[in-house]
Please model this.
Amino acid sequence: MFYPSGKKNILVTGGAGFIGSHLCDELVKKNHVICVDNFITGSEKNIDQLFSDPAFKFIKHDISVALKLEDFFELKEFKVELQGIQEIYNLACPTSPQKYNNLPIETLMTNSYGTNNVLLLAKKHKAKILHLSTSAIYGDLDDMNLVREDNWGKVNPIGPRSCYNEGKRFAESLVMSYHSKEAIDVKIARVFNTYGPRMKLDDGRMIPDFAVNALLNKTVVVYGSEDEMGSYCYIDDMVEGLVRLMNSDINMPINLGSDNTVRIADLAKKIIDLCNSSSKLEFKEHLPYTSKQLVPDIGLAKEGLDWFPMVSLEGGLTKTVEDMKVNLKQYKGNF
Model:
């Protein structure tokens, strides 16, 4: 297909976040990428390496406010007024478990007004849109293993995580309503535990918490029982899954994550070993803003996308811990 700018124009909301920045790294190799973020939980450091690339443009903007791409002079190089945008990856949403109590309204507004604004852009430009959803839409299930997409979930609508869980459930409904009423080509990725370099070290996520405490030789706390299981997908695999989903004909929600389980206690021990740490393990009850680990059934992804995670847990954790060793210095005052 001919593009006046010479390349496809792709919009990535939440592009300065953990997953979003890695996605921008991949997309900018062959496309023009417009990254939108307000840094409420994302970080400029995640995209510093992209600012020198002429195929990358950044817009600081809160997506819960309508976005008019024509108003940004820097996008004239991409000929947005003439070409528009061809694809949208909607990753905008606060995702820090510790921040839900501080940002509940912002989280809900991003999932409602923000998602609607992105869908309006998709309608205007006749663009494909991939919405990043989450395993959290399934809530706390009695059977946590191999969750299928046809599971309707079990979510507390007013609990400490409701702004995120219910917000994401509403966003999925909104995306599918635009698909049925406006014939927009939509994709929904239900993302399960993903890890890798650039994860924030102080936002309450399991792997960064384990690594930080191990690097500081502090007690590594596992919230849950000794036999509790989880699964973890490395960021490179996740990005490949998202790109394959965007390029597919699938319009229904699809799970993306690892279906290889590991005891969370064993995960913690692996991280302690990689950190050459003297830390000990301690087990505690789940915190109120956390949720139990779910393991996805990825049969649809395997069949429809020819996708499944390739990076081993050992290999992914090695790269992740090395990145966290470098970045720990800027966080030391917080621990």
